[in-house]
Amino acid sequence: MQRPETIEETAEMVTQGGGVGIPVRVDHLRETEVEALFKRVSEEQDGRLDILVNDIWGGEQYVQWGVPFWEHSLADGLLLQERSVRAHLITSYYGVPLMVKHRKGLVVEVTDGVGYGYRGHLFYSLAKISPVHLAAAMAEELRPHQVTAVAVTPGFLRSEQMLEHFGVTEDHWRDAIAKDPNYSESETPYFVGRAIAALAGDPEVHAKTGSSPSSWGLSDEYGFSDVDGRRPHWGNYAQKHGIGANT
Known about the structure:
With about 250 residues, the protein is mainly α. It has helices at about 5-15, 30-45, 75-100, 120-140, 160-165, 190-200, 215-220, 235-240; strands spanning about 50-55, 105-110, 150. Helix 2 (about 30-45) packs parallel to helix 3 (about 75-100), helix 3 runs parallel beside helix 4 and helix 6 (about 190-200) packs across helix 7.
């Protein structure tokens, strides 16, 4: 997507947050690279993998909104499935065995929207609903091994790309509400990150395996806030304003 952010910067953010960020360049559509990644993880982390978050996407520029699927670019529509389904499958295929070995772990499929409802475009819907079913199906096969699989959705995400789209910065994000009132209920990427952290820290998380919770719903349950102290709730907002639940 030609974004200026780098994996080195992301790793540094992890380190600043108290962890140890290790940037590794991997093309998740290349099996040999993914296999090498988890071999390295196994060697460097005593054979363990505790959390795997499948959040590969990068497909916004390939969705032709308002164009029916039979008039849409087929190549672009199929590329969406490659990135958001095939890449996730390859990654789980090589990562999950580390969890099965230790009978513990959390696999998170990041998606857009709760459940299986239509998301405004066939190719987009398929790309975003598929991870929900990936989590549900993995949950069934991982259940005997005590490994948990869920699909988690953020609400209106205030990512770097969206900030740029609205011509604002994080410090002045509210200026974008004049362009899109729905932005008033937006959330930073940290909010869904904290949702996943809350799941990972829950000793009873396996009871949620196969489910597709939301960042706002998990905030209600676990009590965490966004980094700005807010607790945005896209579910309540969408219901109040008559916006599709899967928006």
